[in-house]
Amino acid sequence: MNLEFLKPSDRLRVMDLVESTGIDVGDWSNFKGGVEKAASNPKYCYEWSYEDHNMQVIVLNLWYENLLVQDGEIVQKLNLRETAKNAASSPQSRRATKMDFSLQKAARLNWPVRVIICDGGRRDSSATKSSADRRLLDIEQWYVKSYSSDSGDCVLVRGVPTDLFIDQFNIEGLPAGEAKKKESITSVYERSPQVRSYILKRAGGFCEWCGQEGFKTLSGSIYLETHHIQPLSEDGSDTVDNVVALCPNHHREAHFGVNAVQFRKELADRVEKLNKSMQPTANASAD
């Protein structure tokens, strides 16, 4: 596979590329250079990574020379933990650590990654800084294929992953959409795919009640079951405040257990704590 189509040819500004991903760059002008010098604000322009919690997106600066083709995929292998340890300056170490945290977040929450590809002007490891001569924003999304919490080794892949987490509706193929009742022979309640996706990412593959990891399906996805704490049939909301990811056993218990009423209250408390711990992304909805 030829990677030349990803080789940058223009000297574009980082601020403009970050803004084109949808991230607000308004604060870049809040320094002594003002609006005219916003793109050179040292608080932002030298960073290696950027995050937007409302959009749930991460933007990374990657070097063209480090792109690889592996098993038909375009990848970049990173270990920012090692980079931080061996950095030639404190600012470099801080930027590497910040980027490492971003990679961990992308891996844990399945956030999409946008990549600014840089080329030219890279210094060796003993230099205090590098300056890219050319940049481009890849039109394709990337994702973290693997991240080792033990070593910090990370593999980024260009493209959109297959669903890492699925629930009973992915398998049963019930209709997706906003939470509403459709009249047929019986009443069928449709679940928002956005809410289900958010809950599965929040759970990260583990039952939000007992902590047991969901089982892996033939497709490689991890299976849990999404459950409305207050049922839709009882006017429960189809929002992240009323949905929890459970292992099949505890999902059945939530419906049929002898202590189902008390279990409902405890699940509501658990979800409230989970959402608070994930602020400011906890206000996700079906919109």
TrEMBL record:
A Pfam family matched in the record: HNH
Domain HNH nuclease residues, every copy: 194-252
InterPro entries found in the cross-reference section: HNH, HNH_nuc
Gene Ontology molecular-function annotations: endonuclease activity; nucleic acid binding; zinc ion binding
Superkingdom field: Bacteria
Name of the molecule in the record: 5-methylcytosine-specific restriction enzyme A
